[in-house]
Amino acid sequence: xxxxxxxxxxxxxxxxxxxxxxxxIFEIIRALKEKGIMFAAASGRQYASMRYxxxxxxxxxxxxxxxxxxxxxxxxxxxxxxxxxxxxEELLKCLRAQENTDxxxxxxETLYFETPKPEFRAFLEEGYHNRVEHVEDLLPYCSRxxxxxxxxxxxxxxxxxxxxxxxxxxxNVAVSGSVWIDFMNFSVDKGQALATIQKLMNIxxxxxxxxxxxxxxxxxxxxxxxxxxxxxxxxxxxxxxKHIAPPQEEDGVLQVMRSLL
Length: 261
Hints:
The chain is of the alpha/beta class. The chain is built from 9 helices and 14 strands.
C-alpha cells in the first residue's frame, strides 16, 4: 500500500518557471490525506516559492525544497544542509567567470542575487514567486548557504559538463529544469531528503511513489518503489524510472494519482 507520494514541480506538475498548476491537485492531495497518504512536493525551488504554489494545502504537505537541502513541514524545518564557506566562495568565483549566466545564492529564508537585470529579478519574483533580495556582493552570504545555482537560458548541458568536472567530487552538481544548475552538499539530493522523511514517518521504500522529469530527480525515484518519469522527461530519468506517465502538458501525474485514489 502506498503511504507517501512525492513529486517534482517544474516540468512534472507545471510548466518550468511558472505557477500554473492544475487546481485539481489540491483536491487530490486532500483526498490522499483522508486515506492516510502523505504528499511531498520536491523541487529545486526555494521554500517560499513552493509554498506559494501549494498555498491551499500548504499545511497538509511536506516541502522538499532546493533539491533536498531544506525540508519543511507546517512552517517547521525538518532538515537543512549548508555548504562549507570556503567551498561556496570558490564556486561563486568560478560561476562569475562563466559567460551568459546569472547566479543565485539561497539561505532557508531568502534567495540573494547580484545581477543588475530587472528582467532577471522579475523572472525570480513573478515566475517563481521567490522571496528575493538584490545585493551588491554575494560573497558575504557564503557563510550560510544551503544552495547556489546558475541560470543559463541556452547551453545548460555544456556548462553542467564543465562544472561537474570541476566540482563534481566535492558538491552535488545537478541540472534542475532546463535552465538551471544547482549546487548543494555532496550528500544532499531529493532522494536523501525523501529517505529522511521515510525514516521519520516509518514508511518503507515499497510504500512510496515518486514522479519526476529531470536528472535531479533520479535519487528520489530510486528511493521509491513505484517510480514514474513523465513522458517529457530527460532520457536518463526515463531509464531510472519503473514507469512512464503521460507528459506534464497532459497532467500525467494527476492521471496516475487519480488511479491511486
